[in-house]
Amino acid sequence: MYQMYITDSEGPVLFPVTPSKISMKINNQNKTITLINEGEVNLIKKPGLTDIAIDELLIPAFQKYPFAVYDNNIQHADYYLNKLERWKNAKTPVQFKLIRTTPSHSVLLWDTNMDVTIESYEIIEDVEKYGFDVAVKLNMKQYVFFGVKKLEIKKNSSKKKKTAAKKKSRKTKTSAKVYIVKSGDCLIRIARKELNNESKWKSIYNLNKKTIEDAARKHGRKSSSNGWWIYPGTKLKLPK
To answer: E strand or H helix at 92, and its extent?
Structure first.
């Protein structure tokens, strides 16, 4: 089962009908150059930004179809169309999340979770094909936050102080056992980032089950669906 969310500063928006086809193109930045007497060589660089294309995103006008899924109340088509217009005009990135689970929701297969910009979208009204409903062709591009870093050079009185400072820094990082959830986080990402092992997401959930479930209820959910829903600001203990 697939669920598609786009999240802005007001919270996540669940699109009721997950598109049947989504293409993600990881762009290339490699460069071919010609060397004297050596011919062509390829300079390998990091992948470029990912392009996400959705050819048909069905948005029910007002009907509640058995295959549609809603977080809380049923929203009419204008709710989603107004969101798309606002995201495009805001000139700020949003968070795109695609959750893939088994039909019973018992196993999280994997998810796509990235910041994106709304590049373009096309609203299609076709009475013969969609009736009162509308469809949207949506194009998004991965967004990477960036900033200018200042380099400060500090002179230490001795190498001994440098060594002591490094040891202290390493010790502090190693001893950190609490993680504060940030926007866009999921347990798999936290396990990969903090524990270098994606499979430990379940250990994080089991260790913090009460905290995670309390946070989910606080945000209006019956449960966190085994840790699929976590919220910024939640403090999680990390397993050793």
So the answer is: none
Rounded distance, CA 39 to CA 176, Å? 52
HSE (side-chain half, CA atoms, 13 Å) at 11: 8
Place of tokens 């400072």: 165
Provide the token pair at 212: 């995670």
Nearby residues of 104 by Cβ (< 8 Å), 6 or more positions away? none
Distance (Å, whole) CA 56 – CA 146: 32
Specify the amino acid at residue 233.
Answer: G
- Is the overall model pTM greater than 0.85, yes or no? no
Low-confidence ranges of the chain (pLDDT < 70): 104-107, 147-151, 155-176
- Please name the helix (run of DSSP H) or strand (run of DSSP E) that holds residue 210, with its range, or none: helix 209-218
Outline where DSSP puts E strands in 66-174: 94-101, 108-124, 134-142
Q: What is the DSSP string of 116-136?
A: EEEEEEEEE--HHHHTT-EEE
Kind and range of the H or E run holding 67 = none
Can you say how many angstroms the Cα of residue 96 is from the centroid of all Cα atoms in its chain?
A: 5
Contact criterion met (CB below 8 Å) for 120 and 139: yes
Q: What is the pLDDT of residues 114-168, one digit of tens each?
A: 899 999 999 999 999 999 999 999 999 999 877 656 667 776 655 555 555 555 5
d(CA 237, CA 212) in angstroms, rounded, equals 11
> With 0-12 CB in 10 A as exposed, 13-18 as middle and 19+ as buried, what is 7?
middle
